[in-house]
């Protein structure tokens, strides 16, 4: 939009552009009334040429006149802030917080793993002669029976326990209650169990895989606790077992077959009160501790020290690679999510056993 001076004031037009005589007060008063202040980006013509106007004061425009040579402003007169918006600053701060937390988690993981690898051999925390002491008489070593529900349970959950007991010279026997035939791979998984036991230095003759029609793998399969107790009794007598290791009442992963094994062992112990067989269960952990990897060594050790009178001990696996090798022997089960489980599971690095 352009504003031109009326034709009847040629001298005033020349004065406004810097040529001719200076305008008098009457002419300036007429200009102020002729072009009032306009809102927004519309400026009065006096504002456009105010730098050349030889007037003692600027006309009352909407905004102060700009200096000569500066570009006009075609947007709102609201002041722009040189700082970041509040939402961007908040996102930037949150990003830094997450970066610091991630760096702290990686550092804690590295320190915990270094603590585990610092052990020269599989160890027990706290060191106590009361945990599986040598038997009286000529036989110094124990015959330990590990009772599991499926092939791969021994490698996925009990590797620290097996490696510790082997380092102390105890004889390990494994009783697997099913072939893990839920997907039709029962024979394959049975052979894989023998290969995993070779990695863990357990002879084939000390491994037994059952295939009872009432003890089939499956989340919806309910096992008879009395049958589990009966089969356990047979192998306790066959191998002269004096110590049993198995799942606790939750079964570590919550699998119903794991729970049934625990209840079957409890029923066996109830029926065999006069015997000299002691039993230990693997403590189930909450999901945070379960997937904390080697970091859980600090809390588990603290719990074992504070509850030593309750017969709770933490077994440390000084060679986590042995757990990887044993689990990798189960080729049919060695899929991507189980690889992640073995890497991040605390059961790869430590086991917490408590007496039943």
From TrEMBL:
GO terms for molecular function: N-acetylglucosaminylphosphatidylinositol deacetylase activity. Keywords: Membrane, Transmembrane, Transmembrane helix. InterPro entries: GlcNAc_PI_deacetylase-related, LmbE-like_dom_sf. It is an enzyme of class 3 (hydrolase). The chain crosses the membrane at residues 86-111. Belongs to the PIGL family. This is N-acetylglucosaminylphosphatidylinositol deacetylase. It comes from Sorghum bicolor.
């Amino acid at each position: 939009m352009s504003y031109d001076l009326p034709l009847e004031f040629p001298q005033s037009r020349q004065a406004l552009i810097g040529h001719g005589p200076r305008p008098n007060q009457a002419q300036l008063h007429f200009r102020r009334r002729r072009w009032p202040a306009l809102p927004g980006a519309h400026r009065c013509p006096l504002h456009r040429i105010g730098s050349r106007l030889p007037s003692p004061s600027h006309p009352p425009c909407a905004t102060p006149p700009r200096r000569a040579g500066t570009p006009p402003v075609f947007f709102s007169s609201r002041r722009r802030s040189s700082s970041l918006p509040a939402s961007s600053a908040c996102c930037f701060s949150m990003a830094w917080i997450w970066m610091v937390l991630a760096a702290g988690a990686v550092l804690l993981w590295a320190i915990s793993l270094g603590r585990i690898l610092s052990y020269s051999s599989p160890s027990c925390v706290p060191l106590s002669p009361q945990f599986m002491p040598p038997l009286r008489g000529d036989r110094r070593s124990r015959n330990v029976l590990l009772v599991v529900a499926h092939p791969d349970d021994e490698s996925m959950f009990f590797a620290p326990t097996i490696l510790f007991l082997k380092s102390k010279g105890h004889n390990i026997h494994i009783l697997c209650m099913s072939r893990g035939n839920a997907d039709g791979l029962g024979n394959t998984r049975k052979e894989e169990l023998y290969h995993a036991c070779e990695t863990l230095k357990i002879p084939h003759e000390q491994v037994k895989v059952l295939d009872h029609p009432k003890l089939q793998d499956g989340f919806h399969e309910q096992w008879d606790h009395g049958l589990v107790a009966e089969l356990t009794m047979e192998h306790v007598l066959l191998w002269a077992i004096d110590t049993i290791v198995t799942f606790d009442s939750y079964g570590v992963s919550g699998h119903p077959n794991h729970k049934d094994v625990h209840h079957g062992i409890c029923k066996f112990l109830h029926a065999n009160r006069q015997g000299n067989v002691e039993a230990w269960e693997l403590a189930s952990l909450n999901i945070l501790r379960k997937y904390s990897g080697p970091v859980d060594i600090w809390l588990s050790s603290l719990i074992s020290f504070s509850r030593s009178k309750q017969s709770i001990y933490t077994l440390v696996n000084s060679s986590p690679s042995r757990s990887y090798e044993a689990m990798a022997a189960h080729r049919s089960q060695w899929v991507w999510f189980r690889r992640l489980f073995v890497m991040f599971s605390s059961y790869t690095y430590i086991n917490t056993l408590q007496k039943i």
